[in-house]
Structure formats: C-alpha cells, structure tokens
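User: Batch of two.

Assistant: Item 1 of 2:
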Amino acid sequence: ITGAITFDGFPVKIENNTIVNSLGYGIVAGDYDVGSKYSFEAEIAKNIVFGTRKAYKAGLASGTGIANLLGSRYSIDCRENCLYDNSNDLYKVTNINGIYEDPCFTENYYLQDSSSCKQAGRFPYESSIEDEKLTKLILTCAEEKVDALAKTLTNPYTIYRRI
C-alpha cells in the first residue's frame, strides 16, 4: 500500500496535516505488513488532502484522499477534513462536516484569507498564536517544489517527502 500516511495495527489520531500530490492514498487504513487481526479506532480530523493520484501499481481505490481498506477492523471518526482535486475523495469513510472546495493555498501552502478552511473552528493551526506550536505536514511527489518550499518556511512547519 502506498500513501502519505498509512496505518494498521494500532489506534491513531491524525490531525492538522496538509497532504499534497500523494500517490496511492492521502490517508489510508490498510493492510500494511503487520498482520494484525485486532480492531482499533482512528480519528482523522482537520486535515487538507489535495491532489491524490493513482499509484503506478494501482490497487483497490488507489487515488483516494482518505480510505479504509480494513473494513470493520477500524472504526474511523473522520471529520472536518478538506478534500479537493483527488482522483476520489473518500473510500468506505464518511467525512462529517467536510469541505470539498479548493483550499486556496498561497505559493508556500499557507491558506489564503478567502479559504473556506479558515472558517471559525476549523483548521486551528491557521487561527491562533497558541496553535503556532503545532506541526503541519506537507507531502508531495514534486521534489523540486519541496526543496524550494523548504527554504522559505519557518517553524512550525515540518516537511516530509515520500516518493
């Protein structure tokens, strides 16, 4: 399974991430080489998943922003995520109070003032000084863009690249 964030075999909380141009999946509960048979819970909230495309070795629902490939083994609380320009937005997951509009990024992946993601109560890392302590992930397959972007950003941003 390929994806920006993949998980299996433990409870997870995935919150306040920005995932751009991932191959395979943006965020996926998938059989990831741990052989787990146990049930777990996952909380996936207030993430921006943009531009997810099918992987070269496309599997079930490849190209999806947020997917649950493990069925009833994972109980997923998925809410307030912004999903846009993915091949598919969701697979076997319901995104409560989700946003399906262009997040309106600046060139450095900050949100423009006109972004629907900046509504009160959503995506708190954009709205208060206290939230400056949070880390934002930006994942992309465009190597040259990540390298240039890394030079322009200061804390609280951490960039991870997965190709």
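Item 2 of 2:
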Amino acid sequence: VRFLEQGIDLLGRLTPEIYSTPTRPGWAPVGTQFRHMLDHYRTFVEGREAGRIDYDARLRDGRTETDPAEAAAQARTMISELERIHVEDGSRALAVQMDTGGGQRVPDWRPSSLGRELQFLVSHTVHHYALIKLLLEDVGIDAGADFGVAPSSLAYQARSALASH
C-alpha cells in the first residue's frame, strides 16, 4: 500500500505528455512502466480469491499507459483491495503461473502463498520505480530520494547513517 501511495503522489505531478513520451531511446515511457506494474497488482487481486494467479494473463490496459490520472485511479482501487487482506491470510496457498523464458510454451503452475506474492509485488514495484526514477531524471523531475529504493536498502542506509554519527 505504501508503494502504491508513493506512486499516486508522483502521478499527481506528471503531465500526460511526460507520462506517455519515451525519454530514452529503446526504453518504454513512464506510463508503460506504471501500466505494467499495475497490471501485476490487478492480476494478483483478481486471482487471489480463486487461489490461482496467472501473471501472463494480464489485462494490459492502454489507458493506464497514457493517462496518469487513470493510473492513479487504478492504484487507489488496488489499495482498497489490498487493505482487505488480513495478516493471517499471508500463508494461504496459491498456484502461480508466469512464463520464465525457459522455452516451454505450456503453463508452468507453481505453489506459492499470498504473502510470498505480496513480497513479489513489492520487489517488482521497486524495480519499476527505479526505472521510472531514471526516466524522470531525464526530463528534470525528481521522484524523491526514497522512490525506487527497496525497504531493506532504506533500512541499511538508516543504520549506516546512525553508525556514522
């Protein structure tokens, strides 16, 4: 939820032009990064009740790529859904499928848990936020020092700062 809120804050500062225009040759624009990340949340939310999450069957909603307000609205919806999950649900078993590039074109369902998939979403979000941060630096927008930084890295930096004082 904290990471989605961080994204909503940034989305509120972006124009549709900056959001949807590539800033680096060969790189997807900020909007594509956000859309891709939000697609994973939506797939998680839609599959968790049935206990089967197929990350390859993402919606890939084009509106989310071009409209930062639409991306923020979808992030708010994901927050509402995530807030319905209870801590004790973390060990709930799930089956997860994702093409890992091994060449097999058959579904590869693997056991997981709701908590593990939430960990995946955090890691995936941080990764895409780091890319978004780089893309926005190209157009002079500061996403913030904590944007795109893993929680463990932030904790390490805080400990290091305390130790140096």
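The helical segments are 2-11, 16-20, 30-48, 62-66, 68-82, 114-137, 151-164.
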